[in-house]
Amino acid sequence: MLSLVLLTALAQPVPSALYRSTTDATALLELELPLITTDRVDARWKRALGQPPKVKALLATRVPMEAPERVELLPFDVLRSCLRRTDHHLSVKLLVFLAGQPPRVKLIPLATMGLGLETTRGYEQLKAALVESFDWREERMRAVGAEQLWAPQKKALASDNPYLRHLAAEFLAQHEAAAAVDAVWGAPGSDERKKNEAMAEVLPDCRG
Predict the structure, then answer these.
(1) pLDDT tens-place string over residues 20-77
(2) Spatial separation of the C-alpha atoms in residues 202 and 189, rounded to whole Å
(3) φ, ψ for residue 3 (rounded to 5)?
(4) CA–CA–CA angle 28, 95, 33 (5° rounding)
(5) Buried/exposed 45-75: b ≥16 CB within 10 Å, e otherwise
(6) What is the rounded CA–CA span in Å between residue 154 and residue 151?
(7) What is the pTM of this model?
């Protein structure tokens, strides 16, 4: 029995860090950090993290809860190229998860590369994708035909939002529905599949 469980675990694709942290999260928060624009970029960021952030909004949650009045945000580094994009901003918004019991702030993966930071390209798309994915549910036990399962995720696979495409593909793979990805994106290794996978890349970009 142990060997069967081990083989099943090994056969399951390893989830991406973004998907794993999203599914482990209890809630998604948008924080607002005040910035002192006269400081050098590193000093400005350090000072911003030295005071309690404002909770801007509770964007999504998997348990009944109210938006917390305040949260503790531990200092973390961000690439200078990403921090420079905050120039001339009096404040900057930041997406974070709440996870654990009691819930604590967890940074979104690649936060050091600017992911989840308002001034990094794709911020609004990331926010929209995370909010939508919080509503996704297990469907394998639904008494409907296979073609009726995973409708939200199948639709998301064709989205213009790379974060939503990424999370949908990961969700389906982790719920033993990889065939649904093949049907929309093409067979693994095909040119069509490679093109679709490229459109689901989620690396942040702070250039320019």
Answers:
(1) 999 999 999 999 999 987 778 888 999 999 988 999 999 999 999 999 988 999 999 9
(2) 20
(3) -65, -35
(4) 125
(5) beebbeeebebbeebbbeeeeeeeeebebee
(6) 5
(7) 0.90
